[in-house]
């Protein structure tokens, strides 16, 4: 198929792509962008199209994959898109406040988890947490420094598993 024929066939099929793009994006401007990206990819990858196959299905596949890739990229970046006319949300971050309720729940959970540790692990862990060096803890508890390091490691591991619900929060 020549470039001119390819362009002609894509022009005929592209009208049916817009409704699909609207269903995927739920926004007219995003649908136009998706359609444009799809057609651009189709033209740049024209050599990958096999004559005699379903051009419409090929374009729908390109569009779907482009949408999925863009969506995953947006989720990974975890971006916030401010759709207000005056960018109110973007400009209001300096004046936003937290009520610290979440923080107090987290602190209570952490305290409970630490208190539930066996004394063997909690004591060296808390000493290290308060700023004692490994050799100071070893001397004070009269145990080898390797044992101190191991007990602190085990305490951290247990706390990490008990407090896994907080792993994705940045506080």
UniProtKB/TrEMBL annotation:
Q: What is this protein called?
A: RNA polymerase, sigma-24 subunit, ECF subfamily
Which keywords appear in this protein's UniProt record, sorted alphabetically?
Sigma factor, Transcription, Transcription regulation
User: Which ranges of the sequence are coiled-coil?
Assistant: none
Establish whether keyword Ribonucleoprotein is in the entry: no
InterPro entries associated with the record = RNA_pol_sigma-70-like, RNA_pol_sigma-70_dom, RNA_pol_sigma70_r2, RNA_pol_sigma70_r4_t2, RNA_pol_sigma_r2, RNA_pol_sigma_r3/r4-like, WH-like_DNA-bd_sf
Record-annotated RNA polymerase sigma factor 70 region 4 type domain positions = 108-159
**Where does the record place the RNA polymerase sigma-70 region domain?**
16-72
Transcription regulation in keyword set: yes
Q: Mention one GO molecular function.
A: sigma factor activity
User: Its family?
Assistant: Belongs to the sigma-70 factor family. ECF subfamily.
> Which positions make up the signal peptide?
none
NCBIfam families registered for this protein in UniProt: sigma70-ECF
One GO BP annotation is: DNA-templated transcription initiation
């Amino acid at each position: 198929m020549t470039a001119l024929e390819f362009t002609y066939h894509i022009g005929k099929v592209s009208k049916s792509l817009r409704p699909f793009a609207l269903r995927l994006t739920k926004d007219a401007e995003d649908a136009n962008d998706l359609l444009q990206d799809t057609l651009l990819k189709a033209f740049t990858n024209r050599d990958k199209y096999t004559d005699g196959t379903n051009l419409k299905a090929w374009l729908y596949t390109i569009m779907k994959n482009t949408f999925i890739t863009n969506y995953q990229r947006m989720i990974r970046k975890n971006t916030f898109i401010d759709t207000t006319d005056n960018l109110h949300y973007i400009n209001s971050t300096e004046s936003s406040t937290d009520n610290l309720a979440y923080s107090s729940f987290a602190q209570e959970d952490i305290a409970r988890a630490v208190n539930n540790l066996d004394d063997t692990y909690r004591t060296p862990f808390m000493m290290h947490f308060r700023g004692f060096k490994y050799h100071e803890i070893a001397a004070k508890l009269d145990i080898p420094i390797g044992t101190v390091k191991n007990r602190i490691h085990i305490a951290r591991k247990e706390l990490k598993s008990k407090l896994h619900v907080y792993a994705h929060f940045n506080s």
